Amino acid sequence: MTNPEETTPSKPDYKYIGTRPIRPDGLDKVTGRARFAADLSLPGMLAGHVLRSPHAHARIVSIDTSAAEAIAGVKAVVTRSDFPDLDPANPEYNVTRNLMARDKVLYEGHVVAAVAASSRHIAKLATEAIAVEYEVLPHVLTVDEAMADGAPLLHSDLLTQNVEPEATEASNVARRTVLERGDVEAGFAEADVVIEREFTTKPVHQGYIEPHAVVADTSQDDTSVVWCSSQGHFRVQSQTATMLGWESSQIKVIPAEIGGGFGGKTTIYLEPLAVLLSRKANRPVKLVMSRDEVFRATGPTSGTRIRVKLGAKKDGTLTAGKAWLAYEDGAFPGIWGMLGCWCIFTPYDIPNFHIEGFDVVVNKPVNIAYRAPSAPMAAFATETVLDEIARAVGIDPLDLRLQNAAKEGDASPLGPKHGPIGLSETLDAIRKHPHYSAPLGPNQGRGVATGYWFNIGESSSASVNLNENGTAVVATGSPDIGGSRASMAIMAAEVLGIHPDRIRPVVGDTESIGFTDTTEGSRTTFATGWAVIEACRKIVTELKSRAATMWDVDGEEVEWVDGEARHTKGDNDPLPLAKITAAAKQTGGPLTASASLNAKGAGPAFCSQVCDVEVDPETGLVTILRFTTAQDAGRAIHPSYVEGQMQGGVVQGIGWALNEEYIFDGNGIMENAGFLDYRMPVASDLPMIDTIIVEVPNPVHPYGVRGVGEVGIVPPIPAIANAIHDATGVRLRDLPMSPVRVLEALTNGNGNSDGDA
Amino acid sequence: MARIFLGLEQRRFTGGVAEVEMQASTVKQLIAKLEARFPGIAEQLEGTAVAIDGSIVAHATYEPVPEDAEIHFVPTPSGG
Amino acid sequence: MKYVAPTSVEEATQLLASEPDARVFAGATDWVPQIQAGRPPPGIMVDLKRIPRLVELRRDEGDGTNGASWTIGAATPAARLTEEDAFRADFPGLTEASGLIGSDQIQNRASLGGNLCNGSPAADTVPAMVVNHAQAVIASSSGTRTIPVAEVVTGPGSTSLEPGELVVEIEVKCPPANTADAYLRFIPRTEMDIAVVGVAARITLDDSGNCSDAQIALGAVAPTVVRVPEAEQALVGSPIDDDTLAAVAAAASAACNPIDDKRGTKEYRRQVAGVLAKRVVVLAAQRARERSGGTA
Amino acid sequence: MSRTHVSCTINGDETEFLCSDDQSLLNALRDELLLTGVKEGCGTGDCGACSILLDGRLTCSCLIFAPEAEGSTILTVEGLAEGDHLHPLQQCFLEGAALQCGVCTPGFLIAAKALLDNNPDPTETEVRYGLAGNLCRCTGYDKIVRSVLEAASQMRESA
User: Fold this and answer.
1) Could you check whether the bond before residue A165 is cis, i.e. omega within 30 degrees of 0?
2) What is the value of pTM for the model shown?
């Protein structure tokens, strides 16, 4: 492990880190040349279409595909009988049941069959010709329904994990998570103010603009080449192989450009279907989801019910916290309630707490990660109650947060102590920003909130090849979902000492680069960037020895400065990198190096935000007037794309807060599966989003990087809720804070104002 | 001696013991020693991530355990 | 599904007469999503945009007996109206409504004829046409007839058009002096939404500044666009003051017969209909005052 | 099913293609002509990723039946640059970091061109409303709006 002192200088004097070169993949994306998965066409390619369940919960009595297979142009049909049954202990068991329903369909949109045909039109007709007999079963749509006594069960064998005594009867509760410290009741007894509130949120979708798409070309020897839109092509490879009962080595996955993910493309939906259809038809097959399918069948994030109770002394010191969280997992067990528990109190140093969370299955699409998964709902509860506490004890809400903010050395609720973290610095930055003291008009209000996301490390591989002309190719295994190729080029440039324009960063397929974990958990610039740095350091060592050879001097006499070898103990003229690569053949052959690592010590991300709103008292319409976010990036490699991540996260949070929600009818059928009625923010809904990049370096990373991708989405919901209260005096505790809800709260209070603990 | 902190899910095997002190060269050896003292706990600990002095490491089986380190076993995280 | 693009009204009406499975379209901006959502497509799609008369936008100056008027081809894209300063000057409200039919991409395709004949209760331009007493010219193989726009839509998705008939153009007389229209709608976002409530008003002021004539129409709060006579009576002969506006709001709310759906609740639609009615009357009255050179 | 022959001018080239009558122009551009810079995000006119200029008017190609293109002039993102010379909007998007995943970018560029063709000196609000038919989930629109304003001022200066 690298030594922090030498790798994170207190006053870094970087040449390329912190600059804003044009991203390497930019030109292709502004000219239409960039190839996304759905853009690929192969000779003889067939079009696929998927048949999905029209019911929220039903037993599949029978499936008859004969009529479909009889249609001219239909080349292959796959159903549950084409896929092996996995051992339920297999970690991918649920993924394989989500991709193809077996005895039961568990939500509207659950896959029942897939067809490949000579045209989209015929493939669609064929799926409509498949006769499926269902026995409709009663369904549950919310944690309340699913946890109720006698609720219909999704899985007859699901036993709740981590309960005392051990569960013996099946239920819809997959897991209980408990975190506690100190004596929570004694803590509340110490408090002068105790406030307890309950909050609900609805499922929301990641909303990437590119629907899931895949092209598979499988040959008769059961090997397949797969082009797809994914955040992790190595996971696509292993999950697809597992579902088919194949070896991973039988499948080569080539990452296409990915049109947004935000967590929603960290699992698979179509790939095994396409691979098997292609195998059966002996032709390449393309499967592309419609937007309707994306909403009905791919992962939204959890709907939740959360109760938070906080106690504080008159001076604002928090003495105790209690939280109860229930998160929907969708149709199969997940970890979302557990993650909520990890995040709900982490920004603050609370001496006594008890956190109890539940993961609950419901008849909805399977929940999958969405940007800082589970944290925004938890922050909605904690940050709103904190705002009430601040008002109750008469302390500025920002000061109250600063006073209780977690600092280096404080133990997180999970147990481990925080290293250097930037929460207080982000709060300070907001306080100093002119926004925080700007005047407000009538019907306007201001709210603040903070957010936390833990970030992850995991495994990454990188290789660097120096070309004869002194340019470099840097390959990694991390799909680029937001500009990571630009940051890879900059970090490589910093080590090699050549301009980022001389470096071509690429994303390698599963056969051309070492295993790399999925682009998730804000890990790519941190972990994969670290691998790039290590590979470049190896090649610098090699460059120095080649220079020593060319000078015929001892390697010890060579140092690498600013892109050239310098002779420390002699008067040889410096050798720039291009001169060494030009002579590579004479000095031992081409220069190449690679590095792989399991990145340790991902630095937690914190941010603080302030938001101004105006509320129309007659219609309940909330307008975002101004928004400022301050985030600890550790070190901003390419500040423009750090800002872009911060702004994108904020705006997704604004959509979640105000209008986005899954709406279901009484039968569990989604009513708003399209961009018209699933209301994501449009440009005219928003102001500019001001960003303040705070840099508290992550000591374990050579350049101090922390992940920046996710945490920005965490505070907007409570910041907006607190601003609405500041403007109107009413508290909104149920999402979305749509005009209907806000007007209802304004008209009859709904017990939503402060002081009704 | 390293200090090992045990979460609620682990305390089911320790009869409620929340913290123990142990000497071990690697996480693997540490788990073996914990298993010897608290039968059944190993299965619960394998596959989890390990926080060594606050720095979370996934797949930590062969990680060295520094003298006087603070060790927490935490579920392997994921993200968006 | 077969595509045909007649170049004359006669050709189109003959086609409709001979092919029962033919349906006309202009922008298809509602139609394509409906087909995407599973609505069975017609056997023959008749594209009206290549018929010169249906993509016209014309101001007739009129004569001593008839005042000036506009003729709007039924397939003329809404954007043509919002781009036409002379049209905006005569009908700022109808122009506003035309500028609210979806995004710029949609307004370059969507037409008044389509907005009307789709029979959507939430169509933005219909209340604005109704308050301006717009007329629909309807053609069939057996000739043409002209009826008030208000009589075209009979319910969600249904119209009073006979099989074989199509709307050729919309005629609307320019408002007299001291008169102006306005349209306001409520949506949760600022763009790209279907009206939760839409309210159009046309207000005439007398020299004392009192309202001498008023038309109020509501959209998205009933199966069809509804006029609000009680609000109109409350306005006529009164100044545009708080008491009058309160009466207008109450009447507008009372005139609603809304549904609960994913876009809004009954109660919300009632309340907001009243709010928008007040606001749209104030806006129209202010424009009427400006048009009269401030004498009113 | 017999296919319909369509002749039109796309990005300056006289082009012919065959399509089925119920095929969208978007599908024809992508599947028949391999102009895959035109993206499909929703197929219902709600996201703008498939934006093109049809006879100079900004439209969603997913809402147009392919046969309607007969005799028309079409501009897609592939036709925005003049040879090696990027359109100022393309250059400003690159320099202003106005894209992340890039899948909405072709639609935004075409919509922004249409906006500036009609209004060379838009306010921020006019830009925001002019682009309201195009969804971006990555950027929060901030850098897109700034880049369009920057391109507008550059185009005014060079005009």
Assistant:
1) yes
2) 0.97
